[in-house]
Amino acid sequence: MQNNEKCFINMMSIAVIALIMLPVGIACVILGFGMGDSPCVMCWAERITMIAIALIGLFIVRYGPKRVYLASLIFMACWGMFNGFIHYSIDGTFGGYLDIGQGFGLEIFGAHTQFWVIVVDFFVLVFLALILFMSRNFGEIMHKSENKEFGKYIPLTPTSKFAHLAFIAIVALNCLQAFITSGPPPHLGSSTPPRMSLNPDKWFWEQDHWESPFDFRFDWDVEKPELVTSRSNDLVLQADAGAIKNIKFLTQSEKITLNLGKKPLTGLDLNKKTGTFAISANNNGFYVTDANFNALRYARHDKHFIMEMEDSVGATWYKDEVSIISYNKTFVSYLPTDIIDKDEQNSQWRHLIDGYDKFKLTDFGNKNRFFTLRAKQQYILDFDYDEATNKYLIASVPSKTRPSWSVAILDGDDKMIVEEYVPSIGVELKDGKTLDDYYITGVELDTDYAYLLSKNYSSILKLDLKAKQIVDAFAFTGVSNPRAITIRDNKFLILSREKDENIVFVFNMPVQETLPAKEQDEQIQSDMQNL
């Protein structure tokens, strides 16, 4: 074997020794047997990937560099980085719900162990590139290997012998640790392993992961919500089928068919100062209409520019601006104004596909996202803004991952979360029932109260914002696809897509909802006297 060939074999052997003894060896011997750290199921997948990379390195040392070995090594390093990114994002750092300094696993130089998986696998590629760069006549070495000119095996050097022995020893210790912490097949690693112990009474073996469906996104693969153009067979329109006992039925007073084109409409909000409406349409269109729902302005937002908005599901007035929101909690606000200047029109064209002469994005901060904690793995179907309190309100919809819903209050200026909670129950429920499956498609925020429109069970839940409690509930009939709610003249206006028509159903609010507080008390006393 020539000197340049021996140099290549030694460099590859040193790389194998570094990989198997440093990250794999330290994780097993020092962190595991020494400090009691137990790998989770994903940690084991990442560690086994490193062992596989080291094994491929030994194949190269023993049989010479071949295309299949180099390709396999690069593939496994990329696979290891992918697993590291998945692990790191699932544990929250990239997901955004961990504060600085928080994490899972032991901290090394300010970063937790799952982060170092990405670093190690990245440097596998770096060192492979350096070895190939520093190897003289590598092409000739590879040609000889492919043609089996080295014979059946490449003779071992002292360095390559040590690499083989180190690999055998560290893998044996990892096998022992795997048996202690995860058990023999069919047991699998744990997502939440306890500290490692040599006492068999403290060994906990699990098979839970066999029951999990295969999905590389895990809990982040959340099904899309029921949009205006889709119909879910899981939702029930009959209010009596819901959880609330003796729910109050509203009386319908009017039905208004909207003449705003054929697009399905998704959001509705009344500007109480001007009497005009903000209305959102499917595919990020939006209108400003007069009090009779005649269109005054129309525009369509470019869903792909800067922030991905997906389909718009709700509309609200943000001060004097029209805001629309997507089900992924991304929103944008535009000021209705006539734009004559061509340069300004071109500037607005960056944001709008249609109507860039009718609306203006006044602040890039008004193209933004709401960040939540409880609803991070849930979508929403509407939002509302209250100028008196300068607050937004959103309500999530249940999913298979999170089969309940919650409410979030967000600041009108910095758009940051103020509070988020699951409302307590102040209404009488049927035995064994909860409000978890109510499906909030519309929101109306009215300073001290919020009215939450649920398509499931055709209900409106009244939320006391100070008490954080559902204090009343109302039911309606005759509406097959309720999407949004607002209030005008003491009446609920419910927007629905009925076959190919956009219709606003008007329902009378109960007398206690329409009277001022003092008159409500007088009405209640009068009702009690009449009993």
From TrEMBL:
Source organism superkingdom: Bacteria
Cited PROSITE patterns: PROKAR_LIPOPROTEIN
Xref: InterPro entries: DiS_bond_form_DsbB/BdbC, DsbB-like_sf
Keywords: Membrane, Transmembrane, Transmembrane helix
Membrane protein topology class: Multi-pass membrane protein
SUPFAM superfamilies, alphabetized: DsbB-like
Segments passing through the bilayer: 7-32, 44-61, 68-90, 115-134, 162-180
Entry's localization field: Membrane
Protein name: Disulfide bond formation protein B
Source organism (scientific name): Campylobacter majalis
